[in-house]
Write a structure and sequence with these properties.
By secondary structure, the protein is mostly helical. Helix content is 70%, strand content 0%. It contains 4 helices and no strands. It is flat and about 50 Å long.
Length: 86
């Protein structure tokens, strides 16, 4: 994993001909790939979830799906001033 994260750090923060959009796309892709890899490791180790856990997780996700407030709060914490109507 370390070579991947080192490459990621160099590309995102070092000298590069890549545009900011290309750098951000690479960052998003790497996060997706890392989570996918971790899920495969967990599954390979035999860790299983119960139907009750999956149901509770899906229910919690559905309840917050249309709620932008956590994202607005996070943006404000980072110094941005998003509109409350977003």
């Amino acid at each position: 994993m370390w070579p991947l994260t080192e490459f990621h750090d160099i590309v995102l923060h070092g000298e590069s001909d890549w545009t900011i959009a290309e750098r951000e796309l690479l960052a998003a892709y790497n996060v997706f790939a890392l989570f996918n890899c971790m899920n495969r490791i967990v599954e390979g180790c035999g860790v299983m979830t119960s139907d009750a856990h999956l149901g509770a997780s899906r229910s919690r996700q559905q309840e917050t799906r249309e709620c932008a407030q956590p994202y607005l709060d996070f943006a404000r914490g980072m110094g941005f001033s998003p509109s409350d109507s977003a």
